[in-house]
């Protein structure tokens, strides 16, 4: 949401970002600080009654302070100076003819003249003179302020004033705002890049750590697999050797038993052969 400072008959100041609104408010507060301090303490300008409501000089002097307090809430920020609903009128932007005239007179120690132009500025926007009589002290300020403003307008219209101090100041201010906005965006982009680089580094570190853990896990699993395989081979080799040894013993036993049987049959055969020979001799 945009930030808006309403100036009544002047063009509103509109900002797309909080940072831009903050810089403008801070700069204007600094420029107007001394003058508003004198204005708030002036005995003839303590109260202003208008169709927009009743305002004290102290309220008007603290408008930038209130704006600064609401920078985190654009809607509340915008309501402070809105034209309807009792919004407080801020001083004219310092780069306008009115602003330059008031500040210029004040810097030359023409405090009364500066206050007169500011009082006239408030009357032109708020219609204060409609609510007071002609003998009120403020009327003299309104009259002098209007004359000084008309004279300033005439001076700005002279040939040498085609590019007058007010316009030049406004151009410089806009260039400065653009430069600061551009620098803010560069810093913001650099911050995002640094945050991105940090995140990439974290991801890479996590990946390397995970990879290392997985590699160690795979290595441990492989060692365990080889160990179990060797144990299995050793176990089965022993079992096979035991079975082969047992089979060899059985074969040897069978051979010995066969040899015994063969010898027994051989002796029996020889004995029978001898008996047959004896019988033939008897015949």
Structure description:
- This protein is mainly α.
- It has a domain at 3-157.
- 74% of the residues lie in helices and 5% in strands.
- The protein contains 8 helices and 4 strands, in the order ββαββααααααα.
- The protein has helices spanning 18-41, 57-61, 63-69, 74-81, 97-107, 111-126, 137-156, 165-282; strands spanning 3-5, 13-15, 47-50, 53-56.
- The strands form 2 sheets. Strands 1-2 form a two-stranded antiparallel sheet.
- A hairpin with a 7-residue loop joins strand 1 (3-5) and strand 2.
- Helix 5 packs antiparallel against helix 6.
- The chain is rod-shaped, with a radius of gyration of 54 Å.
- The model has no long low-confidence stretch (mean pLDDT 79).
Task: Give a brief rundown of this model.
This protein is mostly helical and 283 residues long.
Structure characteristics:
two-stranded antiparallel sheet, 283 residues, single chain, mainly alpha, 4 strands, two-stranded antiparallel ribbon, 74% helix, 8 helices
């Amino acid at each position: 949401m945009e930030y808006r400072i309403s100036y009544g008959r002047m063009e509103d100041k509109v900002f797309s970002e909080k940072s831009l609104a903050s810089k403008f408010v801070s700069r204007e507060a600094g420029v107007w600080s001394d003058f508003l301090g004198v204005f708030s303490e002036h005995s003839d300008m303590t109260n202003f009654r208008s169709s927009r409501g009743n305002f004290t000089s102290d309220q008007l002097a603290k408008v930038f302070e209130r704006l600064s307090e609401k920078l985190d809430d654009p809607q509340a920020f915008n309501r402070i100076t809105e034209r309807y609903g009792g919004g407080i009128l801020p001083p004219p932007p310092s780069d306008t003819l009115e602003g330059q005239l008031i500040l210029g007179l004040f810097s030359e120690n023409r405090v009364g003249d500066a206050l007169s132009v500011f009082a006239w500025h408030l009357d032109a926007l708020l219609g204060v003179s409609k609510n007071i009589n002609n003998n009120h002290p403020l009327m003299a300020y309104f009259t002098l302020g209007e004359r000084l403003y008309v004279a300033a307008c005439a001076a700005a219209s002279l040939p040498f004033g085609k590019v007058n101090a007010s316009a030049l100041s406004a151009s410089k201010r806009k260039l400065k705002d653009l430069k600061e906005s551009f620098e803010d965006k560069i810093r913001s982009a650099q911050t995002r890049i640094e945050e991105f680089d940090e995140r990439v580094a974290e991801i890479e570190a996590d990946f390397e750590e995970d990879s290392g853990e997985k590699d160690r896990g795979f290595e441990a699993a492989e060692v365990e697999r080889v160990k179990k395989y060797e144990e299995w081979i050793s176990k089965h080799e022993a079992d096979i050797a035991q079975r082969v040894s047992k089979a060899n013993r059985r074969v040897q036993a069978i051979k010995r038993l066969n040899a015994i049987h063969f010898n027994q049959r051989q002796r029996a055969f020889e004995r029978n052969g001898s008996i047959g020979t004896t019988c033939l001799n008897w015949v």
